[in-house]
Specification:
Fructose-1,6-Bisphosphatase, Chain A, domain 1, 2 domains, 8-stranded mixed sheet, globular, binds D-MYO-inositol-1-phosphate, binds calcium ion
Amino acid sequence: MQPMLNIAVRAARSAGELILRSIDNIGALKVHQKSKNDFASEVDKSAEYEIIRIINSAYPEHSIIAEESGHHPGNDYVWIIDPLDGTTNFLHGFPQYAISIALTHKGKLTQAVIYDPLRDELFCASQGAGALLNDRKIRVSQQSHLQGSLLGTGFPFKHQKHLDAYLEMFKALHVDSAGIRRTGSTALDLAYLAAGRLDGFWEIGLRPWDMAAGILLVQEAGGVVTDFSFDHHFMKSGNIIAGNPKMHQIIYNAINPHITDSLK
Ligand code: IPD
Ligand code: CA
Ligand code: CA
């Protein structure tokens, strides 16, 4: 395994252990409300601290962007960390959350790890080397029609101004797809897409740490990810469409009439 990926795996597993140890104590955790519907618990913070500690001890010169502690400046290797993607699920005992760690070099995604500590599922990707789930190669699905497809999404709960546009997109896809899932962990949704468990995905208003690792996983599993302008500025806009090449196009075509200028 690539040494930098190895460090990311070690950090994700260690954070996973920490999260699992706190499960019996969720009710007693200190929870901070960052903004409306946006929470961070002391577990988010200590998991992030643990990940940064492990990365820092191996690569003290690297930069870090982490959800809870922000930007730690360094060289042109940048780690993008979400210590607990699916915090609301976690706080409710709803078993769907993960640790997400990505590495970029000069702006290009090079390594990705998403770890589900409850199922002990480790999703990894290195640029140009494919994507793995627990050492087994994964590929996006071969689904080629909306009919029969299973899609993932996230609701724009922090971006109410986009709710009407989003609901039109939802209607356009809901009519023909076999189902649409909103799991509450975008990192796992993208990992599931890479593993062929979902056929397509779209969401509005993501932050880099929600999607960075998942994007590389999808790409390395043979999928396509774009923003709502069919371009690659998703880290900036926060809006993504992902799928195998056919499903990506199908989702884009279906939601395109509802993409307002401010979503492009
Ligand atoms: C959230 C999850 C969710 C997405 C939200 C994110 P968090 O991350 O990824 O699926 O819809 O936009 O904020 O806050 O649980 O790390
Ligand atoms: Ca997140
Ligand atoms: Ca988080």
